[in-house]
Amino acid sequence: MKKMISIIDRISFYGAIVAGILVCIICGMILVEIVLRSFLNTTMYIADEYAGYAMALISFLGLGYTLSQNGHIRMTFIHKALKEKGRGIIDLFAYLVGVLVSFYIVVVTWKYFFASAVDGSRSMQISQTPLAIPQFFVFLGSVMLALQFISETCKAYLIVKGDTEVEIKEGAEFI
C-alpha cells in the first residue's frame, strides 16, 4: 500500500511540474503577443485561446498535488481538537467522500471528452483546435485527483490502523 501511495504522490508531483511549465508558457505567449501587437502591428491569433486552454489544464493538473500538500481550503477547528487517531478517522471519512466525488468528476469529464472526440468538435477560433485535445487533459487531471484521493484515503487508513511511519502533513509544503 505504501508503494502505491508513493507512486500516486509522484504522479501528482509531476502534474504540478507540468502545470508550472504551462504557467511559464502562458507568460511567454502573452509577452510575445504584446510585442507583436505593440511593435509589429500583427498578432499570433491563438494566444487568447491557448492561454484559456492552458489555464484549465493548470487548474486540473494541479489539483492532485494541491490535495497531497493540504493546500485546499479546509475547516480545521474540529480536526485540531482531536488526537492523531481521531484526526485519522475524520480524514478517512472525508477522503472517502472525496473519492466518490472525484470519481463522479472523472466520469463526467470522460463523457465530455469522448463526445467531443466522436463528434470531431472544434473550437470556433481561427485555429479550429479539436476540443478533444484540451478536454483529454481535463479528464487526465480528474483522474490524477481521484488517484490522489485514493492515496490520501490509504494514508488516513494507515493512521487509524496505528502505522507510525505514515507522513502527516499539518500544512502546505512547497517544492
Can you describe this structure?
With 175 residues, the protein is mainly alpha-helical. Helix content is 75%, strand content 0%. The chain contains five helices and no strands. It has helices spanning 2-39, 47-68, 77-81, 84-119, 132-161. The protein starts with a helix and ends in a 14-residue tail after the last helix. Mean pLDDT is 88; it is low at 170-175.
Q: Low-confidence segments, ≥5 residues, pLDDT <50?
A: 170-175
- The separation of the N and C termini measures 24 Å
Main beta-sheet strand count, sense and barrel state: none
The quaternary state of the protein chains shown equals: single chain
C-alpha geometry: elongated
Radius of gyration: 20 Å
Entry summary:
It is built from 5 helices and no strands. The protein is mainly α and 175 residues long.
Task: Fill in the keyword field for this structure.
5 helices; 175 residues; disordered C terminus; mainly alpha; 0% strand
